[in-house]
What does this fold into?
Amino acid sequence: MSKYSIIKVIVCLTLLTSCMSKEEPTSITLNSPDTNIELNFFISDKGKPSYLVSYKNEKVIDSSKLGFEFQKVLALDSNLKIIKVERKTIDETWKMIWGEDAQVRNHYNELKVFLEETSELKRSFNIIFKVYNDGIGFRYEFPKQEHLNHVIITDENTEFNLTADHKVWWIPGDWDIYEYLYNTTKFSEIDALKHYEPKTHLGQTYVPENAVNTPVTMKTDSGVYLSFHEADLTNYAGMTLAVDTLNLKMKSELVGNSENIKVKRQTPFETPWRTIQIVDRAGDLIESKLIVNLNESSVIDNMSYFKPTKYVGVWWDMHIGTGNWDYSGKNHAANTKYTKEMIDFASEHNIGGILVEGWNIGWEKWWDKKNKKEHFDFVTPYPDYDLEEVVRYGKSKGVELIMHHETSADIIRYEKQIDTAFALMKSLDIHSVKTGYVGSVTPEGEYHHGQYMVNHYQKVLEKGLETNVAINAHEPIKATGKRRTYPVAISREGVRGQEYNAWSKDGGNPPEHLTIVPFTRMLGGPIDYTPGIFNTSLKPYKSENQINTTLSHQLALYVVLYSPVQMVPDLIKHYQEHPAMQFIKDVGVDWKKTKVLEAEIGDYLTVIRQEKGTDNWFLGAITDENQRIIKVSLDFLDVDTIYSAKIYKDVPNSHYLKNPEAFEIEEQEVNSKTILELKLAAGGGCAISFIPKE
Ligand code: NOJ
Ligand code: CA
It folds into this structure.
């Protein structure tokens, strides 16, 4: 008898005894629709609620406790009994307004457990478990009740206890920023405090203990992939996971503030979902819709004012030093003339958006750490930037302005101006904004990932909904699938983006970076990485830095990384007349279908996507610092169609360090029976467009 079956027997026995003695169950099982995942909820000694999870008969989450601690009142984590359970099964399909797939299946079994204290206060809470074929989600629900009204949560103690020392891809549990390179270690080797280097360009970064930020992804020795995260983070603090490397345990550690308040709520309320993706293939993590499925359906039926788009920007100039945000300095980049040149370029290359940073008053104090606050003005342009004219000119060329609001994390000021700032966008018919929150949060004592900021980011989404403006937030709260409910949440940063290649002192993002990000950060939702730098050497602007990939790898990122807004960030002159520009011109941004063909986290990844509204397919494949050959069967193509495939690929001597910009384009007729052999250079990639022949 396996170890697992023993546990099962014990659990069943407990159930039996408790049924007999108290006429109530103390252990309950819930399976995924395909029965591969089994969740057991039970009340352990002293009335402590606990759960464990197995996948294909292998235990993946060991017995883990659940509970809460509050300010001034007794903890709610023991002396509990089950007073009722409810079950249901849902199988429905919903439409993504924009996304990786046109349709999403939402199929799960649900169990709601009603718990009540056996002691006099009889405080109660419920736990809702949903088990899908690709993982589980559970959330706590606190009903309105006499002895639990206004609550201050000082700790949520949700445990995720592991069964072995897995391989983990992780970043430190920083309360302010997610912009780290991923570490790949055994769970027992996680040392967030050692890897924590305060970033000089940011005013605030805080890692209080050995914890990781989510999504955090693991691989077991038997090849099962697990990823831990949360869904629907609303009016609550973001969750980091504290790690106990000795006992292989994790526990929720909510982001607090300087007063040690984690969450302030009044009953009734519910927490975000705690999620565990459980799959066999690395690619299934990406294809999984667990996180969006756990969010409520959309509050709007359509969003005709926003179309997924590629966009150029007055942006890379600032990062490589050829332009300035600040009008008082040299080379103020956000001027009408330069913006119009960019609009012309965009319009000639099938690019629908333009972002202009540094257009508004306030950047003079941007670098002044002491006087950073109370300076940005979100409605007044600098004298050399004619906002109305730029909008008008763009519209005449089919290119929409993307507004920019850098707030310096001065929330007090931004919220004071938010109505006027969004009203201005509405009056000019501008339908998207990139927001930014660099630096320390005002009011002081708050962190970027705490409840105060979660509520701020939510306020901005709601303002966007009200004024038809979609939000692309930088230095954001992590993505937790809220894009389903609020499709105005189009993209966000929350990742160590391309910009680090321009100015970080540590050599930039290594080639493996983007073979990890899709399996970690991106499981939460789209990223605004800004792929597509052609001048990978950054010469002559930042000769000490460079992009650590080949050019074909940069092209492949338009398919590998999902976002409904994809930047085309390099200087225009690096794209003009460049043959690889054809791929950027052709590649879609909104998809009918997405599939991950082959992948190993940290090594390589091949993604195919079918464009919505056309019959075109696109493929993106990337590798880490190792060259490799991959075979791709084109059986995903329509069987009755012949396609013209344009293959943008590395050449035999391409190399991310030695020869990054060498590439070639091969054109070939293909059909669903074709098998392609793609040779990826070290740090290389391959991008292919498949366009049906007439
Ligand atoms: C940091 C953002 O990530 C970057 O894209 C932007 O240019 C600067 N902040 C200024 O807002
Ligand atoms: Ca950033």
In short: The chain is about 20% helix and 35% strand. Confidence is low (pLDDT under 50) at residues 1-25. The first strand starts at residue 27 and ends at 31.
